[in-house]
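2024-03-11 09:14:02 INFO worker-7 job=invfold-0412 stage=load source=structure_tokens
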């Protein structure tokens, strides 16, 4: 099988990740912060060690600002629902995921509305275009750092500076960028970073993180935290304030291992993914029947269509050759409206460090066969 759906979730994991899962189920198989016995304390210390690693990975202010979540979507919900108040205005981009769109749509009952900033003629999200949409009640700007549809990365630095100067909160969705692009909360004045553990960080599904910087989101989920148990309210300090219920120890250790793997090999990872992406993009550019939507610096996300063949048919044909790709809207309808594929979706190939040149060449060979049948 050739697996090329890594933007959805990476299939092959580093040995570090696999071994971390085994350790979580044997050495650290206790409930952290819920007991005073040796194994619970040992697990708690490991969880805090992982929290420290995430803090360093994104250059967050403190370990307490790292909140474990069950996925990136939950992290985004914490940041949005826990921060916005009645009548607030938000600016988002064309590239946002439904984790953002649907959360904001659900807040219309609180008179919270949003504006969408579109890319300029160069395909870039600029401060100038954001400024045009700003209102007196604009409280937050949400940026998808790297699009999961076309792999386009937005420059966060200038936007972060603008947010700080205008007292606006910045939420960065790093689900697709983490592991590929550097994330520096302090330098880029980011208030919220939302991470997914199972994509470019090579962890497991069911784990994510919200990292907080100079912001104070309220809880949107309630339950036990292992602290202040006499109180009916959640603790008033982070991360306990947002971590209700038993946390995912297996996922946390896997995420930690994945981050360590990326930290050690990030340059090598990106060089390999860029090289493999270029091979595919060069083919799609040359073959006139294919429409290419991604550029070279795409973090391994290559979206395309065929002028005569439906997206679903291409995906099905590739599947017959045991090649796994994804077709459709990829939970990002605004991005598809922008590139003109809202009715068709795209074929998305997403490449991981564990893919190789042979697999990309095999994909191209099959795409060529599909194309030749419909000339």
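2024-03-11 09:14:09 INFO worker-7 stage=emit residues=375
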């Amino acid at each position: 099988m050739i697996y090329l759906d890594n933007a959805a979730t990476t299939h092959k994991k580093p040995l570090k990740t696999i071994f971390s899962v085994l350790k979580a189920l044997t050495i650290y198989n206790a409930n952290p912060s819920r007991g005073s016995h040796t194994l619970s304390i040992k697990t708690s210390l490991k969880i805090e060690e992982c929290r420290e690693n995430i803090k360093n990975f994104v250059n967050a202010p403190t370990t307490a600002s790292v909140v474990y979540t069950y996925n990136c979507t939950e992290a985004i919900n914490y940041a949005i629902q826990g921060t916005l108040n009645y009548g607030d205005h938000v600016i988002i981009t064309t590239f946002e995921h439904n984790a953002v769109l649907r959360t904001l749509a659900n807040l219309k009952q609180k008179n919270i509305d949003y504006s969408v900033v579109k890319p300029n003629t160069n395909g870039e999200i600029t401060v100038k275009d954001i400024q045009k949409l700003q209102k007196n009640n604009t409280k937050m700007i949400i940026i998808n750092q790297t699009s999961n549809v076309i792999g386009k990365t937005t420059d966060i630095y200038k936007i972060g500076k603008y947010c700080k100067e205008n007292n606006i909160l910045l939420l960065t969705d790093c689900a697709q960028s983490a592991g590929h692009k550097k994330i520096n909360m302090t330098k880029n004045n980011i208030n919220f970073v939302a991470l997914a553990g199972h994509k470019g960080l090579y962890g497991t599904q069911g784990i994510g993180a919200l990292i907080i910087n100079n912001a104070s989101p309220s809880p949107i989920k309630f339950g036990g935290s292992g602290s202040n148990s006499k109180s009916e309210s959640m603790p008033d300090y982070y991360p306990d304030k947002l971590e209700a219920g038993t946390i995912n120890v297996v996922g946390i250790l896997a995420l930690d291992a994945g981050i360590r793997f990326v930290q050690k090999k990030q340059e090598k990872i990106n060089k390999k993914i860029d090289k493999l992406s270029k091979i595919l993009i060069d083919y799609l550019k040359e073959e006139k029947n294919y429409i290419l939507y991604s550029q070279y610096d795409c973090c391994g996300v290559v979206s395309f269509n065929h002028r005569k063949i439906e997206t679903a048919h291409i995906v099905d044909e590739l599947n017959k050759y045991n090649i796994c790709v994804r077709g459709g809207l990829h939970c990002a309808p605004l991005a598809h409206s922008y590139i003109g594929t809202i009715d068709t979706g795209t074929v998305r190939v997403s490449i991981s460090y564990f893919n190789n040149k042979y697999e990309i060449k095999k994909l191209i060979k099959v795409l060529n066969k599909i194309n030749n049948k419909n000339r």
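2024-03-11 09:14:09 INFO worker-7 stage=report msg="The chain has a mean pLDDT of 95."
2024-03-11 09:14:10 INFO worker-7 job finished
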